[in-house]
Design a protein that fits this description.
By secondary structure, the chain is of the alpha+beta class. It is built from eight helices and ten strands.
Protein backbone atom coordinates (compact mmCIF):
# COMPACT_ATOMS: atom_id res chain seq x y z
CA UNK A 1 0.00 0.00 0.00
CA UNK A 2 2.74 2.47 0.98
CA UNK A 3 4.75 1.56 -2.12
CA UNK A 4 1.77 2.15 -4.42
CA UNK A 5 0.97 5.51 -2.85
CA UNK A 6 4.63 6.48 -2.90
CA UNK A 7 4.77 5.67 -6.60
CA UNK A 8 2.03 8.22 -7.24
CA UNK A 9 -1.13 6.10 -7.24
CA UNK A 10 -4.21 8.24 -6.59
CA UNK A 11 -6.25 5.38 -5.20
CA UNK A 12 -5.20 2.04 -3.72
CA UNK A 13 -7.28 -1.09 -3.25
CA UNK A 14 -6.20 -4.24 -1.46
CA UNK A 15 -7.21 -7.80 -2.26
CA UNK A 16 -6.68 -10.89 -0.15
CA UNK A 17 -4.04 -13.17 -1.66
CA UNK A 18 -6.20 -16.33 -1.79
CA UNK A 19 -8.92 -14.30 -3.51
CA UNK A 20 -6.43 -13.18 -6.17
CA UNK A 21 -5.28 -16.80 -6.55
CA UNK A 22 -8.86 -18.02 -6.95
CA UNK A 23 -9.55 -15.41 -9.62
CA UNK A 24 -6.30 -16.33 -11.36
CA UNK A 25 -7.47 -19.95 -11.32
CA UNK A 26 -10.75 -18.84 -12.95
CA UNK A 27 -12.82 -20.13 -10.05
CA UNK A 28 -16.45 -18.85 -9.91
CA UNK A 29 -15.86 -16.77 -6.79
CA UNK A 30 -19.00 -14.63 -7.25
CA UNK A 31 -21.35 -17.61 -7.27
CA UNK A 32 -22.97 -19.13 -4.18
CA UNK A 33 -20.99 -22.36 -4.56
CA UNK A 34 -18.03 -23.17 -2.33
CA UNK A 35 -14.52 -22.93 -3.79
CA UNK A 36 -11.42 -24.16 -1.94
CA UNK A 37 -8.08 -22.71 -3.05
CA UNK A 38 -4.73 -23.72 -1.55
CA UNK A 39 -1.89 -21.42 -2.59
CA UNK A 40 1.47 -22.86 -1.48
CA UNK A 41 3.86 -19.97 -1.97
CA UNK A 42 7.37 -19.24 -0.76
CA UNK A 43 6.68 -17.58 2.58
CA UNK A 44 3.14 -18.71 3.35
CA UNK A 45 0.50 -21.25 2.44
CA UNK A 46 -2.90 -19.62 2.02
CA UNK A 47 -5.96 -21.87 2.39
CA UNK A 48 -9.38 -20.35 1.77
CA UNK A 49 -12.97 -21.28 1.10
CA UNK A 50 -14.55 -18.61 -1.09
CA UNK A 51 -18.21 -18.04 -1.94
CA UNK A 52 -20.28 -15.03 -3.03
CA UNK A 53 -17.13 -12.89 -3.45
CA UNK A 54 -16.13 -13.42 0.17
CA UNK A 55 -13.71 -15.55 2.14
CA UNK A 56 -15.82 -17.84 4.31
CA UNK A 57 -13.03 -19.73 6.10
CA UNK A 58 -9.30 -19.20 5.75
CA UNK A 59 -5.93 -20.14 7.20
CA UNK A 60 -2.51 -18.63 6.58
CA UNK A 61 0.47 -20.67 7.76
CA UNK A 62 4.18 -20.08 7.44
CA UNK A 63 4.82 -23.66 6.34
CA UNK A 64 5.58 -23.19 2.64
CA UNK A 65 8.40 -23.37 0.11
CA UNK A 66 10.97 -21.47 2.17
CA UNK A 67 10.40 -23.76 5.16
CA UNK A 68 10.92 -26.82 2.96
CA UNK A 69 14.28 -25.35 1.92
CA UNK A 70 15.19 -24.85 5.58
CA UNK A 71 14.17 -28.46 6.29
CA UNK A 72 16.58 -29.64 3.59
CA UNK A 73 19.40 -27.39 4.86
CA UNK A 74 18.92 -28.68 8.41
CA UNK A 75 18.77 -32.34 7.31
CA UNK A 76 21.99 -32.08 5.32
CA UNK A 77 23.68 -30.24 8.17
CA UNK A 78 22.68 -32.83 10.77
CA UNK A 79 23.27 -35.95 8.67
CA UNK A 80 26.27 -34.96 6.53
CA UNK A 81 27.96 -32.19 8.55
CA UNK A 82 27.61 -30.07 5.43
CA UNK A 83 26.43 -26.46 5.21
CA UNK A 84 24.55 -25.48 2.06
CA UNK A 85 22.76 -22.26 1.10
CA UNK A 86 19.19 -21.46 0.09
CA UNK A 87 19.91 -21.62 -3.65
CA UNK A 88 21.37 -25.12 -3.34
CA UNK A 89 18.47 -26.22 -1.14
CA UNK A 90 16.00 -24.92 -3.73
CA UNK A 91 17.79 -26.92 -6.44
CA UNK A 92 17.66 -30.06 -4.28
CA UNK A 93 13.94 -29.51 -3.67
CA UNK A 94 13.16 -29.07 -7.36
CA UNK A 95 15.23 -32.07 -8.44
CA UNK A 96 14.46 -34.57 -5.68
CA UNK A 97 11.45 -33.60 -3.55
CA UNK A 98 8.55 -36.01 -4.03
CA UNK A 99 5.82 -37.29 -1.75
CA UNK A 100 6.05 -40.87 -2.99
CA UNK A 101 9.09 -42.97 -3.99
CA UNK A 102 10.06 -43.04 -7.66
CA UNK A 103 10.33 -46.35 -9.52
CA UNK A 104 14.10 -45.97 -9.35
CA UNK A 105 15.98 -44.06 -6.62
CA UNK A 106 17.07 -40.58 -7.68
CA UNK A 107 20.32 -39.01 -6.48
CA UNK A 108 21.93 -35.59 -6.68
CA UNK A 109 25.47 -34.43 -5.92
CA UNK A 110 25.46 -31.47 -3.54
CA UNK A 111 28.46 -29.30 -2.64
CA UNK A 112 28.89 -27.08 0.38
CA UNK A 113 31.19 -26.34 3.31
CA UNK A 114 32.32 -29.14 5.58
CA UNK A 115 31.37 -28.14 9.12
CA UNK A 116 34.23 -30.18 10.59
CA UNK A 117 37.12 -28.51 8.77
CA UNK A 118 35.61 -25.58 6.85
CA UNK A 119 36.72 -26.95 3.48
CA UNK A 120 34.60 -27.59 0.38
CA UNK A 121 32.88 -30.97 0.36
CA UNK A 122 30.50 -32.85 -1.92
CA UNK A 123 27.95 -35.44 -0.87
CA UNK A 124 25.24 -37.41 -2.66
CA UNK A 125 21.68 -37.11 -1.39
CA UNK A 126 18.71 -39.24 -2.45
CA UNK A 127 15.02 -38.55 -3.01
CA UNK A 128 14.23 -40.73 0.03
CA UNK A 129 16.40 -38.54 2.26
CA UNK A 130 14.79 -35.36 0.96
CA UNK A 131 11.38 -36.89 1.59
CA UNK A 132 12.39 -37.58 5.19
CA UNK A 133 13.51 -33.96 5.51
CA UNK A 134 10.28 -32.34 4.31
CA UNK A 135 7.44 -34.70 5.26
CA UNK A 136 6.69 -33.16 8.66
CA UNK A 137 6.11 -29.79 7.00
CA UNK A 138 4.04 -31.35 4.20
CA UNK A 139 1.85 -33.10 6.76
CA UNK A 140 1.33 -29.76 8.53
CA UNK A 141 0.00 -28.24 5.30
CA UNK A 142 -2.36 -31.18 4.78
CA UNK A 143 -3.56 -31.00 8.39
CA UNK A 144 -4.47 -27.34 7.93
CA UNK A 145 -6.33 -28.10 4.70
CA UNK A 146 -8.38 -30.73 6.54
CA UNK A 147 -8.99 -28.32 9.43
CA UNK A 148 -10.26 -25.66 7.01
CA UNK A 149 -12.71 -28.14 5.46
CA UNK A 150 -13.91 -29.15 8.93
CA UNK A 151 -14.73 -25.49 9.70
CA UNK A 152 -16.62 -24.97 6.43
CA UNK A 153 -20.45 -24.89 6.38
CA UNK A 154 -21.85 -28.27 5.22
CA UNK A 155 -23.52 -26.94 2.07
CA UNK A 156 -20.21 -25.48 0.89
CA UNK A 157 -18.36 -28.71 1.75
CA UNK A 158 -20.71 -30.51 -0.65
CA UNK A 159 -19.71 -28.04 -3.38
CA UNK A 160 -16.01 -28.52 -2.64
CA UNK A 161 -16.39 -32.31 -2.78
CA UNK A 162 -18.04 -31.98 -6.17
CA UNK A 163 -15.74 -29.30 -7.62
CA UNK A 164 -12.46 -30.32 -5.97
CA UNK A 165 -9.60 -28.54 -4.21
CA UNK A 166 -7.49 -26.27 -6.41
CA UNK A 167 -3.74 -26.12 -5.72
CA UNK A 168 -1.64 -23.15 -6.86
CA UNK A 169 1.73 -21.60 -6.06
CA UNK A 170 5.17 -23.13 -6.46
CA UNK A 171 4.41 -25.81 -3.86
CA UNK A 172 1.77 -27.25 -6.19
CA UNK A 173 4.65 -28.44 -8.38
CA UNK A 174 5.89 -30.78 -5.64
CA UNK A 175 5.56 -34.27 -7.10
CA UNK A 176 2.68 -36.19 -5.54
CA UNK A 177 1.28 -33.35 -3.42
CA UNK A 178 -2.06 -33.61 -5.23
CA UNK A 179 -2.27 -37.36 -4.59
CA UNK A 180 -1.52 -36.90 -0.89
CA UNK A 181 -4.11 -34.15 -0.42
CA UNK A 182 -6.69 -36.24 -2.27
CA UNK A 183 -5.90 -39.30 -0.14
CA UNK A 184 -6.09 -37.39 3.16
CA UNK A 185 -9.19 -35.30 2.40
CA UNK A 186 -11.06 -37.69 0.09
CA UNK A 187 -11.71 -34.73 -2.18
CA UNK A 188 -10.60 -34.46 -5.84
CA UNK A 189 -7.58 -32.20 -6.35
CA UNK A 190 -6.73 -30.04 -9.35
CA UNK A 191 -3.36 -28.39 -9.94
CA UNK A 192 -3.91 -25.17 -11.85
CA UNK A 193 -1.98 -24.61 -15.08
CA UNK A 194 1.17 -22.54 -14.48
CA UNK A 195 0.64 -22.45 -10.69
CA UNK A 196 3.60 -20.11 -10.11
CA UNK A 197 1.76 -17.16 -11.68
CA UNK A 198 -1.78 -17.72 -10.37
CA UNK A 199 -1.82 -14.74 -7.98
CA UNK A 200 -0.25 -12.43 -10.56
CA UNK A 201 -2.78 -13.49 -13.19
CA UNK A 202 -5.60 -12.96 -10.73
CA UNK A 203 -4.37 -9.46 -9.91
CA UNK A 204 -4.25 -8.68 -13.62
CA UNK A 205 -7.82 -9.89 -14.11
CA UNK A 206 -8.97 -7.72 -11.21
CA UNK A 207 -7.34 -4.65 -12.77
CA UNK A 208 -9.11 -5.41 -16.05
CA UNK A 209 -12.51 -5.54 -14.33
CA UNK A 210 -12.37 -3.29 -11.27
CA UNK A 211 -16.04 -2.40 -11.56
CA UNK A 212 -17.25 -5.98 -11.93
CA UNK A 213 -15.05 -7.19 -9.06
CA UNK A 214 -15.60 -4.17 -6.79
CA UNK A 215 -17.12 -6.34 -4.07
CA UNK A 216 -13.86 -8.25 -3.48
CA UNK A 217 -11.70 -5.15 -3.11
CA UNK A 218 -10.67 -3.71 0.26
CA UNK A 219 -10.43 0.12 0.14
CA UNK A 220 -7.24 1.67 1.46
CA UNK A 221 -7.47 3.14 4.95
CA UNK A 222 -5.50 6.18 3.77
Amino acid sequence: EDAALGAGAREVFLVEEPMAAAIGARMPIQESTGNLIVDIGGGTTQIAVISLSGVVVSKSIHTAGDVLNKNIIQYIRENFNLLIGDITAERVKIKLAAIYPAEKPVELAVAGRDLLNGLPKEITITDAEVRDAIMRSIKNIVTNIKSTIEQTPPELVADIYRRGIVLSGGGALLKGIDELVKKETRVPVIIIDDPLTTVVRGTGLILEDLEGLQDILIPSAR
